[in-house]
Amino acid sequence: MDIMRQKKINKITSFLFLLLMIFFNTGCKDFNKNSSCNKKRLDGKVFYEIFVQSFYDSDNDGIGDINGVIAKLDYLEELGVDGIWLMPVHPSPTYHKYDVTDYYGIHKDYGTLDDYKKFVKEAHKRNMMVLLDLVVNHTSSCHPWFKEATKNKKNQYLDYYVWSSDTTVINNNPHQWHQVKDSNGDSLCEEKYFGFFWHEMPDLNFDNPDVREEIKKIGRYWLKEIGVDGFRLDAIRFIYPENEKEKNYQWWQEFRKSMEEINPDFFMVGEVWGEDTVIAPFLDKGVHAGFNFELSFAIEKNLISEKKGDIIEKLMKSKRAYEKYSDCYFDAIFLKNHDQNRIASILKNEEKAKLAVTILLTLPGIPFIYYGEEIGMLGKKPDKYIREPMIWQIDSLDSGRTRWMNPVYSTDSTIISVENQLSDLGSILNHYKKLIHLRKNNEILKFGELSPFDVPGKSVLAYKREYSGQELIVIHNLSKTTISIDLKNYSLLKNNILFSSSENNRISSDKVEIYPYSTLILN
Ligand code: CA
Fold it and tell me: Edge-to-edge strand order for the sheet containing 163-164?
């Protein structure tokens, strides 16, 4: 009897202990949640990505420069931009500069460090954040570290890079291993170095504590001495190979912690080409945001097929994936970036290009706009041709037009200049402006939760946004025919028009009519 009783007591004790554990675990989890998380500090903002080389030439040498960006800050302010990401500005042997030779300098074509400091000051004056494009997965093969490392003698920089004589050891891909050769083409060392992207981009060895310190020193310098507000981080998932991905997450946590000592409110957004489940672990006290490539592809797909697809379900799925790792993440949403064919070239229809950005700017997240999208610039790979010169005025007047390349897609015969679009109320530029300002002035569009709103018809993309007890309904017609929605079936459907992208859209007591490729927002 006593034994039975003891067993029962043990059972009860174990059960209570389990309950306590659950309670404390949950409690601890809540306790660890970042109570100071302020989603609003960024969710209301619209960012703009600039390829400096192609943007605006201030000194007539044909190449865009930092002073050219400064000259166009008023334009960006008027457009409604709250933050600027300049593609890499450091010295580099390539036109795109994604292989750096000096992390503390500015490429001479782009100007000086003083120019950059002035840019930061001028941007801040206009309440715009500045993100530095930081490329640390690899350096240029011309970086002094790599030059030292390949002098064929033991020195401290050798271990800054990844070496092996077994070229299957990472990714099982011998093509990513490269031989150091002298000017006669003879091999200098037996071991090869790892360069994930290219032989002129040797990967840094993040197992070496000296490398980690160097990179943190670089980040701290730009935050503290130059005053940037954060970083766009290139290729973050390749710092370590897939089979060591835990070390990858840990590295970005370490980097973030070090930057927070300088500026607790700094912002880092990472490039992770991958699905939400691949991005999610990086958000765990690592990067604040990842670029949402899945959304980019989904918007493109839906506009090509003119079918609503599963954009909303996908975004809600991503949210669930991200929330597993962080309660204070951001979602960097975009149509296209400098590595993708331009949206206007894909859609081949100005009304559809307008619709694409209407969708983007009515979804939750931090929208990033790639320079030139707002004037409908065209471009298809190879990469150079998706990075063509911005068109400010007609060619003969355009003193700031960059001339470093001959554009193939965006020319005076295909694109209307910024100047001429500004004076045309129906232009794509004024559409962008209208939508950005609509978003900036509407708390529901900036901060609201997203949920599907079910309307029949494969070409009707509709969703609800809710914030602080208020809601609005966004309805897009993705097709080339006018759609009509019978209001009797939708007691929820409000009939006050917050925004209509076409003057042909109609709303009456019993139905809503939406013109081809246009949008109605009701509240
Ligand atoms: Ca220039």
Answer: 163-164, 192-194, 177-178
